[in-house]
Structures are given as structure tokens and as C-alpha cells.
Amino acid sequence: MIDGVGGSTAEQELAAMVPQKSYVPIAVEERQLRIEQAQRLMREQGIDALYLNASSSLFYFTGLRLWASERLHGAILLSEGEPVYISPGFEEEKTRAMLLVGDCVRTWEEHENPTALVASCIREGTGAQPVIAIDPATPFFVFDGLRNEMPEAQFLNGACVTAACRMIKSKNEIALIQFAMHLTLKVQRAAARILKPGISTLDVQDFLAKAHIKLGSDSPPPFRIVLFGQPTAYPHGVPYPQELKEGDMVLIDTGAPVDGYFSDITRSYVFGEPTSRQREIWNLEQRAQAAAFEAAQVGTPAEQVDRAARRVIEDAGFGPGYKVPGLAHRTGHGIGLDVHEETYIVEGNQTPLAPGMCFSNEPMICIYGEFGVRLEDHVYIDEEGPNWFTQPSASIDDPLSE
Predict the structure, then answer these.
(1) Does position 333 have pLDDT exceeding 70, yes or no?
(2) Distance CA 367, CA 374 (A)
(3) Region 272-300: what's the mean pLDDT?
(4) Cα 336 from Cα 128, distance rounded (Å)
(5) 107 forms bridges with which residues in the sheet?
(6) How much is the pLDDT for 128?
């Protein structure tokens, strides 16, 4: 049996877990600096207002955590001054109780058009023909309402502000992601120890949720991909449960937030003794991941990192491009308050890597009808180059070591 796989139970592992709480949340002062940075970007680009829907970007700038629904609830950030919060009337007191930055709340009642209120607030603080950036997470009905209320306005994709700010993490953000990653790595190791013949993917998924909560994540993991055998070749899994058997490749991909910041780790290993074919593909995946890491230098375009991993896989006779058997998707994605965010490690993305960028390194090898291998760890860039949040798996025989 592979080191660290089997030999325990879910009950034993959960009983041994101690909540991890030694992290420092994002301070109000940092959120205020984020708003100032956004406003600088807005002025540089001639943007008069940024509409933030109930989204991770609203939380990023203001600390106000709301959930999107059919009721408009968000904020307006003008190029100068404090945010203007837009709230349903019956939610005003709750909204005010949650505010960390500013205190201006404007409300609308159930029979009223909330986009008319947003338009009115923007007109009060801008010129005759405002340029308005829209949070990319804004539902279409909100954008449609705004453009109908403000035919004189020019609308832009707000990613030119939101992504530009969020793509570069502060030291505090990196520390939070680091904490979340180490929490999930503990869960990954515990999940490997509970494996036994006949265990269901549903049982493992249930354990992933309970373990993250026990260790102190904000919420259960929103993704809990657990696959055995042939379905490990499918990046996002299959829509049916499985039971584990000897010789199966195991793939577990999970993560959960801490103070809103996500972890995301995938481990692949064999339940039993690996075959020569499993060893060959696992080792190839390891080399591809290492090549991507070495390519991730300051100033290197993001697409070059994807090319470095893909070249290793193609040189071994797989692909080319996204063709399967081979690497069927991009090599990585940014991470932060969303599991997937800018910048993406993919062909065509010429964004130069810069200190503060954080992204996954996961050049998965998919062989339909056999198995797949994904080793996913995340990287952050500092002035010297790339750094691992979690050390990659050492070998197929020791896949869960520190």
C-alpha cells in the first residue's frame, strides 16, 4: 500500500482534528487602501463610477458579504469619496450593521425599480455622460436595467478595475491563502487515510466537508471531486457515485475558504501497488508540473507557463494541444476570493507575471478509458520568482508527504 493511504476511519480522523484559528483577517485599513487604488485606476481610465453587485468584489473592497438574488443589493464606487450602498428597504438595518467602510445607504422598496435608484445615485455624483464600469459578476437584468435607465452613459467591463486590483495579492492575502492551503492539505492527508476497499466516493465527499468545518474553514468546500479508477480521467468528474477497489487511481480535488480566501489542492495516487503504466503517467505529470513552476518567473507571460507544461506532455507523445490523451485544459487559474479568477495560465494570456500573483499549477494528464493524473498545488510570485503554497507530491509512492 502507498505511504499514507488507508489504515484509519473517518471517525478517528475527525476526532483527532483540532480547529486551526491562527490567522489574521483582512483589516478595514487594507480595504480602504483597495478602494483608493480602485479610484486611482478609475481616474486613469476616465471611469466615473463602478457598480459592484453582491459579489466577491464587493466583499474585496468593502468587507460587505452579500449573496446575489433577484433583489438588487450592492454598492456604487465613484471616482472619489466613500461607497454608496444600495439596499432593499427591509434590509437597511442589517446592511448598516454589516458596514465596515462608509455609512451611506440608499434604499428601494419592493414595488420600485432599483436600477432607477442606482442611476440616480450615479447622476448625482458624475457628469452628464458618465462612463460606468460594471462588476463582471453583475446579473444581466441589472445591467439591462441600468442601460435602459441611462441611455446617455457608456458602459465598460469592470474587470479593468476589479481584476486589476484583485490579481495582485497583498502579503496579508497571501498569508490567508497559505493558511487555507495548509488546512486543506491536512484534510487531503486524512482523506487518504480513511480509504478502504468498497468505500464510496459519497462517503469521502462527506468526510471532506466535515473535516474542513472541524479544522475551521468558513464553510464546507463548494467543490469535492472524488474519483476512482477510469473516471479519474475526467477533470470535473462523473455524475454517479463509485466504490473503491484495489489498484484504482484515486483523484481528490477540494478546497474551502478562510476569511473568504480559498484553498484548492488535488492529489492523485494509487490504492494498492501502482502498475508500470500508472507510474509512467504519474511521473510525467510530476515533470510537467515542475516545468510550469520553473517557467513562472517575474515578467514571463502567463501563456509561457502553460506552454512549458504542455511541451513536456507533448514530447512524451500525448496531445498535441488539448487533444486527449493529453492535457485537455489550461495549466492553471488565479485564486483568491474566488476559486477561479484572474490571471489564467492559458495560451493567449500575455499578462506578465508579477509579484503578488497567485495561481494553480495543475497540468492534468487525461487518458479516457484508463485513468487520469492531476497534481495541483498553487504558486505565488514574489520579487525573486515562484514559490509553492504547498510542496508538490514527492513521488507516486509518497504522494502525501510535507
Answers:
(1) yes
(2) 11
(3) 98
(4) 37
(5) 87
(6) 85
